Amino acid sequence: MNYDHALDAALNNLHEEGRYRTFIDIERRRGQFPHAVWTKPDGSKRDITVWCGNDYLGMGQHPVVLEAMHKALEAAGAGSGGTRNISGTTVYHKALEAELRDLHGKEAALIFTSAYIANDATLSTLPKLFPGLIIYSDALNHASMIEGVRRNGGAKRIFRHNDVDHLRELLAADDPAAPKLIAFESIYSMDGDFGPIEALCDLADEFGALTYLDEVHAVGMYGPRGGGVAERDGLMDRLDIINGTLGKAYGVHGGYIAASEKMCDAVRSYAPGFIFTTSIPPAVAAGAAASVRHLKTDQALRDLHQERAATLKLRLKGLGLPIIDHGSHIVPVMVGDPVHTKAISDMLLEDFGLYVQPINFPTVPRGTERLRFTPSPVHDAGMIDGLVLAMDGLWSHCALNRAELAG
């Protein structure tokens, strides 16, 4: 086999479909978020505004977080020294887990190197703990959840997105005595819609199933202390396992689960994705703990975040642009074609200094390609004005459809 030819064919296929992904070189500069510096392919530099980051609240630049990380770095050095089982558990890791279990009102929490690994490792391990386990997974669950369910070797059922009736049919068709788990998300990141948490918990109670909730796009931003949508809706006590990230609203790095003491202990003891992975550095754990602690009391930042998202959605809707609006902080603008999506993204960057990555297949289904904006509390009115003006012009330039506006 000619391996180079095979690689060429695979890459050319992406180019021909208009969904080849390019990375740009950007430098985030302390205290200037959401501004950054773009190094162009020719080596020249340009100031840009980032509109697609997942540092939703700008906590990656917050003085409280930076101070905690500096102190831990000076005190403990760079790396953690190994896996959690060998030498990689420090006072910083224990302090972070204490903050997380308090955040979610659980007995324990367990840190992973990312929320992806937390989902994959936990969901692939659960059938070892509950032989015969059947996992019922929402059709639009994140790739990390899909991978964890796929790898676990147990039975799985996929229910239509947010379709409680379909899930009920699947649950009712299986052996009542079989152990069961329902896996779903609180906010689905591509459309920004909410999962029906209470209805899913009701089904779990009825059929004796465990509940597994991914709150990655909600922790820090929803609920009176940032515990997520489940906290906002008073449902945290009904969730058996909550997955979250430290790399989005908390602005640092890492992922975790929060659950009962026994559940965390069992996952810690059986999951290869935890056992054999070097733990996050102490400075990262310290910064994450400081961020979680701070956001438990900073409701003003959460309110401003929601206000900015609502303003951007209102302004873009006013232009007749096809916005998906489920009431969350995520602002998807539907384009529906990979070539046009990439072209608008490129022109926003090159002509206006506005950075938003195109979202194409396989992240979203073909025909639903989009630009996904994530306004933060520090995207001010002037930045929103600039983005709206640019989108208006480019939408006309590309001759894309607009919605009929009410007179």
Count of alpha and pi helical runs = 14
Strand order within the widest beta sheet = 4-12-11-10-7-5-6
Let me know the average pLDDT. 95
Low-pLDDT regions: none
State the assembly state of the protein chains: single chain
Distance between the termini: 63 Å
Q: Percent helix among the residues? A: 40-55%
Structure classification: alpha/beta
Silhouette: globular
Largest sheet: 7 strands, mixed
Write down the secondary-structure element order.
HEEEHHEHEHEHEEEHEHEEHHHHEHEEEH
Strand content bin: 15-25%
Rg from Cα: 22 Å
For the secondary structure, the number of strands is: 16
List keywords for this structure.
alpha/beta, seven-stranded mixed β-sheet, four-stranded mixed β-sheet, 14 helices, 17% strand, globular
Question: Would you kindly provide a brief summary of this structure?
Answer:
With 407 residues, the chain is an alpha/beta fold.
Write the topology of this structure.
Layout: H1 3-17, E1 25-28, E2 35-39, E3 45-50, H2 63-76, H3 91-104, E4 108-112, H4 115-129, E5 134-138, H5 143-151, E6 155-159, H6 164-173, E7 180-185, E8 187-188, E9 193-194, H7 197-207, E10 209-214, H8 229-232, E11 241-245, E12 255-259, H9 261-270, H10 272-275, H11 282-295, H12 299-318, E13 331-334, H13 338-352, E14 354-355, E15 358-359, E16 370-373, H14 381-397
Parallel strand pairs: 3-14, 5-6, 5-7, 7-10, 10-11
Antiparallel strand pairs: 1-2, 2-3, 4-12, 8-9, 11-12, 13-16, 15-16
Helix pairs in contact: 2-11, 3-11, 4-5, 6-7, 12-14, 13-14
